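Journal club prep, notes for RB
We'll compare a predicted complex against what the paper describes. Inputs for the pyridoxal-5'-phosphate case:
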Amino acid sequence: MTLAELLPSTGCSTAPALEPGLWPDGTLLAGSDLVLGGVPATRLAAQFGTPCQVLDELSVRARAREFRAALPDAEVVFAGKSLPCPEVYRWMAQEGLSLDVSSAGELALARAAGFPASRIVMHGNVKTAEDLKAALQHGVSRIVVDSVDEIGQLGALARHGQEVMIRVTPGVDAHTHAAIATGVEDQKFGFSLASGAALDAVLRVAGQPSLRLVGLHCHIGSQVRHVASYEEAARRMVGLIASCGVPVGQLDLGGGFRAPYLPGESSFDLFGFAHRVRGTLHRECALRRVPVPRLLVEPGRAIVANAGVTLYRVCAVKEGTRTFVAVDGGMSDNPRPSLYGARYAVRLVGRGGPTKPVTVVGRHCEAGDVLAENVPLPADVHAGDLLAVPVTGAYHHALASNYNQVCRPPVVAVRDGVARPVVRRETEEDLLRRYP
Ligand code: PLP
């Protein structure tokens, strides 16, 4: 007997089929309920309340394993900012990934997770003295320097042979939203390759006796679609390695691998990336007569995005020139639509039937607090309905705020029919604790 047959039917079975590629592995429909990691969404909403960010553990682990399988010789570094949570960091440690942190706060979570310091890399376009001190105190394996000031500060703080990488702006356009395009000139990240600042940074690091240059880094952006963008970055970075005049053993090409958010969007071609970028690296290094550096990649979104589903309760439906479906969350748990115009699919749990296009909006005091526009929902959608929004595993918990003093939702991990919070729901006591 299948799990779907074991679960009680929740009524009408005309719920539309699941959009392929958007939902966590193993998600299924039982009647019109949605079963995530073996746990019905209706049960999750009843037990943990809404909004609720559900995270399918096995999907996270499966994506991590895919990266390791596709790139067996590379170091796969999970971008901890995409889903900062000690339990998720533990899964990554168990799957053999390294971890990147970009602040003392993320490092504190990594420590709480017991993540081995020898596999932690610290990033950040601006690191405060506290960030640098925490990284040194904890003995993180590498620090990626991002400014001349930082090289000086780190050089003064570090004691002996702290391994560093240099963040380079390779001038590669990754054809993504301007707010997440980080490899082009004229933005705040890294040392420009074109201007010579990157080569100058190599000399500056060499001039700091307490630092040891082990690698070069670049991150060309997020939601990168084309393998060719990484190949171009690899070519340019090998060119820089060849002009460094010192051995550079590691080349970190960053993260940014695209995740599909809407029906019909494809996933990033990871195996194509592995094959083509490896080929490019070997060819360019042979051409320029430099040893092939060890490759590092830093996926965040591609590992956790599709493992996440957010459940919301409909609070009100407002009919006008459009139908607005207002839910109990919004930009405080998902600011991505207002930050980068991100778009989402939405499904009503518990009922199917003829649909009409609606706009799903949040509860916050901003006209831009729109979660999804022009999405089909059952025409009789009403207050009390449960909505599920897929692809909410990355940069949702991470970017959540307390706007309007709304408490942030929990992250509930599901696996094999068991649900457990890995981030608890925030309470009003949590909010009040900060006010003297
Ligand atoms: N590496 C660096 C340096 C980043 O800044 C980021 C994201 O901002 C990532 C990796 C992860 O990017 P993504 O989650 O798109 O894979």
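Talking point for the session: The radius of gyration is 23 Å.
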